[in-house]
Amino acid sequence: MSKLFDWLSEFLAHRKGLLPLLGIVFVLCNLSLQFLPFTGWLASSNLMLHIGLIIAILGLMLAWAL
Q1: Are 48 and 29 spatial neighbours (Cβ–Cβ below 8 Å)?
Q2: pLDDT band at residue 66, thresholds of 50, 70 and 90?
Q3: pLDDT digits (tens, 9 = 90+) for 14-49
Q4: What is the pLDDT of residue 40?
Q5: What is the Cα–Cα distance from 20 to 17, expressed in whole angstroms?
Q6: Which pLDDT value is given to residue 44?
Q7: Which end of the chain is more exposed for a tag (fewer CB within 10 A), N or C?
Q8: Which sequence spans correspond to the domains of the chain?
Q9: Is residue 65 scored above 80 in pLDDT?
Q10: How far is Cα of residue 52 from the mean position of the Cα atoms in its chain?
């Protein structure tokens, strides 16, 4: 587990904008799901929006710390 965290922190230290960009992609996916008629609870719960916001905020906090 320690080696995984070491590798992950080294990986993210060189790619500081990766997690916020991934969060933005999730938010945009949520936006596009709102216009599709067959998405059901995924669009009505805004799950992708919430996951995207959490990833983006964590990414900004990690980028600031690293």
Answers
A1: yes
A2: low
A3: 888 899 999 999 999 999 999 988 888 888 899 999
A4: 86
A5: 6
A6: 87
A7: N
A8: 2-65
A9: no
A10: 4
pLDDT of residue 50 exceeding 80: yes
Q: Sign of torsion, CA 58 60 62 65?
A: negative
Q: How far apart are CA 12 and CA 32, in angstroms?
A: 28
Integer Cα distance of 47 and 59 in angstroms: 18
Question: What is the secondary structure of 34-65 as a DSSP string?
Answer: TT-TT-THHHHHTHHHHHHHHHHHHHHHHHHH
Let me know: does 60 contact 20? Beta carbons within 8 Å.
yes
Position 17, amino acid: G
Contact yes or no for 48/19 (Cβ under 8 A): no
Q: Give the Cβ contact number of residue 41 at 10 Å.
A: 7
Q: DSSP class of residue 15?
A: -
